[in-house]
């Protein structure tokens, strides 16, 4: 009988729970997570965390306890059928996950992109295509907007072997949510990550979206104008190769903007959400300010990815090995490294003495 891995979530947030569930499935190892979000104002599982847990249970036909709102303790056992030709980073047999089509309703404006993030690494243990259609929030606070997920994260991960796509039926802004999108995953042979140096910035792509209820105020256009004015591309030599301004249906008024930078070795991205009382131009400027801070960090060594991607890539780094230079060791990066090490990954974090960046290295995983 496989021993249960005990985890303490008291000092971490929902990301800790999501990543722990992903690792549990990838390593085919039961987990017990206690004191979930204990240091948060509303501890325990919220709607979006419960939706992730219930989705993972359904995908794996897993055994679970504590799957209820506000629960602070969850036990999860994927109990997948093992396969002898795929091993985890500690050499034990990984499980095999069947594909299929599933539907998930978060029930609030909870983030569907965070749920999608939880599922993406599972492509490495799939035996057939998986499609998951989710109803919830597409562009909400404290999570990547849908266009960041579709146009920044997925294109970068495809470079390292992930086969995935995302179709969007309807946007869902806060507070009503009601968006609908489908993630398609195919069995994927992931490759080691090599993102150590930043290449020369080459091009910027811009995606600005508004709900139909805001179209008479030209919000999407004004966001784009604010961003481009603040970026001053004519002074940088970076080419604007794509500019999309979209009006979409949504149960709630809302807007978002995403900037994507392609450079010699990777992709980075930044985003901002519209808020009541904030001029649309200012929303665009906020995204551009984040991009400018990235571009201004031209000293060596400079990170090839933005701070959010840096954290999200650590699972893939642990799975297949490689090197990743992160812009800074945020709390999320530190927590993720600790969690990955708790599952047996051997990460080395070397801080750059001349700046904030750090090089995270994982030796190649054990061959089957």
UniProtKB/TrEMBL annotation:
One Gene Ontology cellular component: cytoplasm
Keywords on record: ATP-binding, Cytoplasm, Ligase, Nucleotide-binding
Keyword Cytoplasm belongs to the record: yes
Active site, UniProt feature: 332 (tele-amp-histidine intermediate)
UniProt superkingdom: Archaea
Domain RNA 3'-terminal phosphate cyclase insert: 196-295
Positions of ATP binding: 117, 308-312
InterPro entries hit by this protein: RNA3'-term_phos_cycl_insert, RNA3'_phos_cyclase_dom, RNA3'_phos_cyclase_dom_sf, RNA3'_term_phos_cyc, RNA3'_term_phos_cyc_type_1, RNA3'P_cycl/enolpyr_Trfase_a/b, RPTC_insert
Family: Belongs to the RNA 3'-terminal cyclase family. Type 1 subfamily.
PANTHER family, per database record: RNA 3' TERMINAL PHOSPHATE CYCLASE (PTHR11096), RNA 3'-TERMINAL PHOSPHATE CYCLASE (PTHR11096:SF0)
Protein name (Swiss-Prot/TrEMBL): RNA 3'-terminal phosphate cyclase
Biological source species: Natronorubrum sulfidifaciens JCM 14089
Biological classification of the source: Archaea, Methanobacteriati, Methanobacteriota, Stenosarchaea group, Halobacteria
């Amino acid at each position: 009988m496989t021993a249960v891995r005990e985890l303490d979530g008291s000092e971490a947030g929902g990301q800790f729970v999501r990543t722990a569930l992903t690792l549990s499935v990838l390593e085919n190892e039961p987990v017990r997570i206690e004191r979930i979000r204990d240091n948060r104002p509303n501890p325990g599982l919220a709607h979006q965390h419960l939706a992730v847990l219930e989705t993972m249970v359904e995908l794996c036909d897993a055994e679970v306890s504590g799957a209820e709102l506000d629960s602070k303790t969850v036990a999860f056992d994927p109990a997948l059928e093992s396969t002898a030709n795929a091993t985890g980073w500690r050499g034990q047999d990984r499980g095999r996950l069947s594909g299929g089509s599933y539907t998930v309703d978060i029930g609030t404006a909870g983030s569907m992109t965070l749920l999608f993030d939880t599922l993406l690494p599972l492509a490495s243990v799939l035996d057939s295509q998986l499609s998951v259609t989710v109803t919830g929030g597409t562009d909400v606070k404290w999570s990547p907007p849908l266009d960041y997920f579709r146009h920044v994260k997925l294109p970068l991960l495809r470079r390292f072997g992930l086969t995935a796509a995302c179709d969007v039926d309807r946007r869902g802004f806060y507070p009503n949510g009601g968006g609908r999108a489908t993630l398609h995953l195919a069995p994927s042979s992931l490759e080691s990550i090599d993102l150590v140096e930043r290449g020369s910035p080459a091009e910027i792509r811009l995606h600005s979206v508004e709900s139909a209820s805001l179209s008479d105020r030209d919000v999407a256009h004004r966001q784009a104008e604010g961003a481009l004015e603040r970026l001053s591309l004519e002074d940088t030599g970076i080419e604007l190769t794509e500019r999309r301004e979209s009006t979409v249906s949504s149960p709630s008024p809302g807007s978002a903007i995403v900037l994507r930078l392609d450079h010699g070795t990777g992709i980075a991205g930044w985003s901002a959400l519209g808020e009541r009382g904030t001029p649309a131009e200012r929303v665009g400027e906020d995204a551009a300010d984040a991009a400018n801070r990235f571009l201004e960090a031209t000293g060596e060594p400079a990170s090839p990815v933005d701070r959010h991607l840096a954290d999200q890539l650590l699972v893939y780094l642990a799975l297949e090995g490689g090197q990743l230079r992160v812009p800074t060791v945020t709390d999320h990066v530190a927590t993720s490294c600790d969690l990955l090490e708790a599952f047996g990954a051997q990460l080395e974090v070397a801080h750059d003495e001349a700046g904030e960046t750090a090089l995270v290295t994982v030796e190649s995983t054990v061959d089957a």
